[in-house]
Write a structure and sequence with these properties.
Elements (H helix, E strand, L loop, with lengths): L32 E7 L17 E12 L4 H4 L15 E12 L8 E6 L7 H5 L13 H5 L2 E5 L13 E2 L12 E8 L5 E5 L22 E5 L7 E2 L5 E2 L1 E2 L8 E2 L3 E8 L4 E9 L6 H15 L17 E7 L1 H11 L14 E5 L39 E3 L4 E3 L3 H6 L4 E7 L1 H5 L21 E6 L30 H17 L16 E3 L22 E4 L4 E2 L4 E2 L7 E5 L3 E3 L14 H4 L3 E4 L19 E4 L15 H5 L2 H17 L8 H14 L4
Parallel strand pairs: 4-5, 4-16, 16-17, 17-20, 20-21
Antiparallel strand pairs: 1-2, 2-3, 3-5, 3-6, 7-15, 8-14, 9-10, 9-15, 11-14, 12-13, 18-19, 22-27, 23-26, 24-25, 28-29
Helix pairs in contact: 11-12
């Protein structure tokens, strides 16, 4: 049951690889699949480095070409697929970059494909899983390689241009009579440095020029500004801005249908909102088909339609799909819309790991902006993504009248994967993370399906913190230091647990997250944070989740359709629940790292913007590290015991960190091979904090 609330310009030359040849005619009778793959010769990004028993790695880059049948129910869910141009066989075509990093001798690997959904065209897995990655040492400690994974990336976001690394080309939709499609679009600009000009879709929509305005005359469009998210929007006179580039010529600049110039410039203390009429929507949802079809080809195919061999033929036994942040949200959308069912109605990926992606992605919508955040407190709050369902199992939403879950489609087809879902504390404060494990009324914890695990990395920030990085010293645009509680080693353990679950049916550790029945997930008005001198409390920065009216052709249940109302009209607000904390201000439940078990301060999933940057709003996606005083004398009214009061000496601290590590290892939340490095990381931080 659905409740409705009231493509790329074909980028010729977009894929610049040496193998990006003109697409030749597709053979008749092809179904939704990869029809052609052209690959460059292997390169060796790590030189002659050998990774344990797995040996050396090689990288193979190229381009995959695909086509989908718009009439196939598997593809008909794609917004505007029926309005996309078709080839001679009635199919819709796309192309995407592909990158494969694999053992030179695949027999020495773990026979598992780890397909990462790229984040705005960028590969994140190497930097998230491998510790110590630098330009000079691109493998870091080589964790993924030493495990024997075959790493795969393919483009899915069709509005990207360079310098994004892994991009995709998809067509533009037109009316059935061939005329241009136009529609209302809302764009938001927030800058950290004053600037005169912005891409028409900027902020989180990086590496994209955006949808061009249908008319360079701005008299029918509006640009507003406000300091805080909930402040009244102040109109900016149309004579004070233009569709133009003022980076090299003063206002009114050089006319440009994909840029916005503000006469007095965009400053750091405002949210700017543009509402305009755009043209030429990309059939963005084809990116979901590209992930499905490339993954299926690399896992199962022998060769393409032209005889080009599958470079992974016969070596992949297990396939995992993961995504981080934006791409974690995309993964949940991929699953909910049924794309884990391949062309032969087979299951494409055996396991999935959505990370710090607690809602869904804004991809399957006309004039989609998939690079946007799906609503944080200060930035891009009202964009689609947080609509129900957020839970994997079915739940009833009393605000929309819907009963549904993310697994509905895959359950009907027997294509549901095993899922290890991980998130930081910030997902609760800013990205509706509590909604993943509770019913929409906020009254009870929901049942997790037997093949789903959820882990909350307690008191951590969105992007984590490297275990080999020194304690932070700069607050940036925030009031507090960024959160220094690393989840890297726990994250690695859970990836291994997922691989073993898929490969050997060895179940991962029990889920760990804040719960209503544990009294560790509580209404915001029951949240108790210590009164720490010079620290602004978090009550004003929680990102509320709401139901919006976006028009009659928008389907909130599938986060799909056409948006006709901008800005959207708030209809109702969901209950606000957050993880409860102890007397130090640290989360009491979830997966508590070594650092959190032997803390050197308060680690939060929120931070507050400082003066000049919309002071008082959330410093989105950044947590806080509020250090303990070193000595009792230095506390100066701070109710939290000092570092020396807690631990006395560095040796005593290390002993406690070792005990915490041993406990995590025994619960399979830390790999035995990572224990020594994790203990050393905690000890290094304690030493930097002043312990001797």
């Amino acid at each position: 049951m659905k409740q409705r609330f009231s493509t790329a310009r074909s980028r010729a030359g977009l894929l610049t690889s040496a193998v990006a040849l003109a697409l030749v005619a597709i053979v008749p009778g092809a179904d939704a699949r990869t029809t052609k793959i052209l690959l460059n010769p292997p390169t060796f990004p790590y030189g002659t480095t050998s990774f344990g028993s797995v040996g050396q790695y090689e990288e193979i880059d190229g381009v995959a070409y695909g086509e989908v049948d718009p009439n196939d129910p598997l593809n008909a869910v794609i917004q505007d697929i029926s309005l996309a141009p078709r080839n001679a066989h009635g199919k819709v075509e796309y192309s995407t970059n592909v990158s494969i990093l694999k053992p030179v001798d695949e027999k020495l690997g773990n026979r598992t494909m780890l397909f990462e959904i790229v984040n705005r065209g960028n590969k994140l897995d190497p930097g998230f899983f491998n510790v110590g990655v630098t330009a000079a040492n691109p493998a870091g400690d080589g964790f993924l390689e030493s495990q024997g994974f075959t790493l795969v990336w393919a483009g899915w976001q069709a509005d990207l241009v360079s310098p994004a690394n892994v991009i995709m080309s998809a067509p533009i939709a037109h009316q059935r009579n061939g005329k241009t499609i136009t529609g209302i679009v809302r764009s938001e600009f927030i800058v950290s440095t004053p600037v005169s000009t912005q891409n028409i879709l900027a902020d989180s929509s990086s590496n994209t020029p955006g949808y061009a305005t249908a008319n360079l005359d701005n008299s029918h469009d509006t640009l507003t500004m406000r300091v805080h998210q909930d402040d009244p929007k102040i109109p900016i006179a149309n004579s004070d801005w233009a569709y133009a580039d003022c980076s090299s010529k003063p206002f009114p600049g050089v006319q440009n249908a994909q840029k916005v110039c503000l006469k007095n410039g965009f400053d750091t203390n405002h949210i700017y909102e543009l509402i305009y009429t755009a043209k030429d929507p990309i059939v963005m949802g084809l990116g979901l088909a590209a992930i499905r079809d490339v993954g299926s080809f690399l896992r199962d195919a022998t060769k393409d339609d032209f005889g080009n061999p599958n470079p992974l033929k016969g070596v992949i036994k297990h396939a995992l799909l993961n995504g981080i942040s934006q791409s974690g949200r995309l993964l949940r959308t991929y699953l909910e819309l049924g794309f884990n069912e391949g062309e032969a109605h087979q299951q494409v990926f055996d396991g999935m790991q959505p990370h710090i992606g607690s809602v869904r992605n804004y991809i399957n919508i006309r004039f989609s902006q998939p690079g946007r955040l799906a609503g944080t407190q200060h930035t891009e709050k009202q964009y689609p993504g947080p609509e129900s369902p957020l839970t994997y199992d079915d739940t009833h939403d009393p605000l929309t009248g819907e009963t549904s879950g993310l697994l509905d489609r895959c359950r009907r087809t027997g294509t549901c994967p095993k899922i290890v879902h991980t998130m930081s504390d910030i997902e609760y404060w800013e990205a509706s993370g509590g909604g993943d494990t509770i019913d929409p009324s906020g009254k009870r914890d929901i049942h997790l399906p037997r093949h789903v695990r959820i882990y909350e990395f307690s008191s951590t920030q969105h992007g984590g913190f490297s275990p080999v990085t020194p304690l932070p010293t700069s607050t940036g645009i925030c009031q507090q230091l960024p959160n220094a509680n690393s989840y890297t080693y726990n994250f690695r353990a859970l990836l291994v647990a997922l691989q073993q679950w898929v490969a050997t049916d060895s179940e991962p550790p029990p889920s760990l997250y804040s719960r209503i029945d544990h009294k560790s997930l509580v209404p915001l008005d029951k949240f108790v944070f210590p009164a720490i001198p010079n620290v602004t409390g978090p009550q004003g920065v929680f990102n509320t989740r709401a139901v919006y009216d976006r028009g009659p052709q928008y389907d909130g249940d599938d986060a799909s359709g056409i948006i006709a109302i901008e800005p959207p009209i708030p209809v109702a607000e969901y209950p606000a629940l957050v993880p409860q904390v102890d007397a130090d201000g640290n989360d009491i439940d979830g997966l508590r790292s070594i650092t959190l078990q032997v803390p050197l301060g308060t680690y939060t999933g929120w931070n507050v913007r400082r003066a000049g940057f919309s002071e008082g709003d959330a410093c989105d996606l950044t947590g806080s590290y509020i250090p303990f005083a070193l000595t009792k004398a230095q506390r100066m009214g701070d109710p939290r015991p000092s570092v020396q009061e807690r631990y006395g000496t560095l040796a005593a601290y290390t002993a406690l960190a070792t005990a915490a590590a041993n406990s995590l290892v025994s619960r399979r939340l830390l790999l035995p091979s990572d224990a020594a490095a994790a203990i050393q990381s905690a000890t290094n931080q304690a030493q930097q904090a002043g312990l001797k």
